[in-house]
Amino acid sequence: MKIAGMRTTSEAAPPAVRYKIGLVQMAMSADPDANLNTAVAKVAEAAAAGARLVCLPELFRSRYFAQHEDAASFDLAEPVPGPSTEALAQAAQRAGVVVIAPVFERRAPGLYHNSAAVIDADGRLVGIYRKMHIPDDPAYYEKFYFAPGDLGFRAFDTRVGRIGTLVCWDQWYPEGARLTALQGAAVLFYPTAIGWHPKEKAMHGSGQLDAWRTIQRSHAIANGCYVAAVNRVGQERPSDGGDGEGIEFWGSSFLADPFGAVVAEAPPDREAIVIAEVDLDRIEEVRRGWPFLRDRRVDAYAGITSRFLDEAPSAVSRQHDARNR
After folding, report:
1. N or C: which end of the chain has fewer CB within 10 A?
2. Torsion-angle region of residue 139: left (phi > 0), alpha (psi -120 to 50) or beta?
3. Which residues contact 30 (CB under 8 A, 6 or more apart)?
4. DSSP-derived pairing of the beta strands 125-130 and 136-137
């Protein structure tokens, strides 16, 4: 893997105004090496279909182990650089594509993150993003496994231009999308592992899927940028047989444009590679019509860094006035 400080063709050539991306919707086996080999093959397949950037799903190298708490699952973690990023760096270089590679990152003994590595088209590791928001829900016991990210929200310069990546639970938070877009990211990628508890699907399934699509489309609209969600698919049961039927991952990976329109979408029930075009001129067009970034009241958002505004409104107003004297 090449070192980030070296001069590359990414630095020499300006990014294209239009380019295609590939969103890899996968079903995971119980064999991590088989999943990695599949991911490498999917990168090549997406590149052959014209993609210049390929994004894989969250924690693609294994089945979703956070359905239960088991210390043995820490054995799945790996360093960055490590086996997954090395294999995908070679795949990126062979195909000449940028790759977003989610990894279960082993940072130090007993310290792990849910991360996404950004690999440029020459095989160079541009950087990593560590998932900031960590859920703790039935069958999503991620706080047992992952420390919260400490690198902040980040944008990365690649051969196709500046992009940002967040991970799964991050997709419900407008603050993360905004801070990444404010760094100039033209596309926000959300590698994801989300699905239904099968017993809840009949009553809540359609509403949950609609909410998931809506929140990400809203990030595209509010920030005037593209948003890509990349999910796994298939039903996975815990290895210990606990929690009953497990999770039915709902696929439905998609790309939304800066107006929130869904450009392309995968089916909910099978593997697919979504190939869709990003048009950077579309960002300029939409932002001229809806200048949300221009009209932001950056002087009036003092309360956004509070957990909850327990103070009376007058106290918050005084805090705002004090900051702007």
Report:
1. C
2. left
3. 62, 63, 239
4. unpaired
Helix (H) or strand (E) holding 44: helix 32-48
**CA 106: distance to chain centroid?**
19
Selection from 174, 186, 266 nearest residue 229 by Cα: 266
Task: Say if CB 157 and CB 165 are below 8 A apart.
Answer: no
Q: What is the pTM of this model?
A: 0.92
CATH number for 19-294 (one of 3.30.70.20, 3.90.79.10, 3.60.110.10, 3.40.47.10): it is 3.60.110.10
**CA–CA separation, 120 and 93 (whole Å):** 8
The one-character DSSP state at 308 is: S
- Residue 82, number of CB atoms within 10 A of its CB: 16
* Gyration radius of the chain over CA positions: 20
Encoded tokens for 64: 């979703």
Instruction: Walk along the chain (325 residues) and give the pLDDT tens digit of each residue.
Output: 553 433 344 454 677 799 999 999 999 999 999 999 999 999 999 999 999 999 999 999 999 999 999 999 999 999 999 999 999 999 999 999 999 999 999 999 999 999 999 999 999 999 999 999 999 999 999 999 999 999 999 999 999 999 999 999 999 999 999 999 999 999 999 999 999 999 999 999 999 999 999 999 999 999 999 999 999 999 998 875 555 789 999 999 999 999 999 999 999 999 999 999 999 999 999 999 999 999 999 999 999 999 999 865 655 566 666 666 6
User: Which positions are annotated as active-site residues?
Assistant: 58, 131, 168
- Angle, helices 174-181/198-223, rounded to nearest 10 degrees: 30
Amino acid occupying residue 272: A
Query: Are the C-beta atoms of 195 and 209 separated by less than 8 Å?
Result: no
Structure tokens at 260: 């929130």
DSSP string over 278-291: EEHHHHHHHHHHS-
